[in-house]
Amino acid sequence: MAGPGLTEHASGATAPDVASGPVLEVNNIEVVYNHTIQVLKGMSLAVPKGEVVALLGSNGAGKTTLLKAVSGLLELENGEVTAGEIRFAGRPIRGRKPHDLVRDGLFHVMEGRHVFEDLTVEENLTAATYARAGASGRDFDRVYAYFPRLFERRKGLAGYLSGGEQQMLAIGRALVAEPKAILLDEPSLGLSPLLTEEIFTVLARINAEEGTSMLVVEQNAAMAFAISSYAYIIETGRIVIDGPTERLMGDADVREFYLGVGEEGASRNYREVKHYKRRKRWLS
Ligand code: ATP
Question: How much distance in Å is there from the Cα of 11 to the middle of ligand 1?
Answer without folding.
Answer: 23
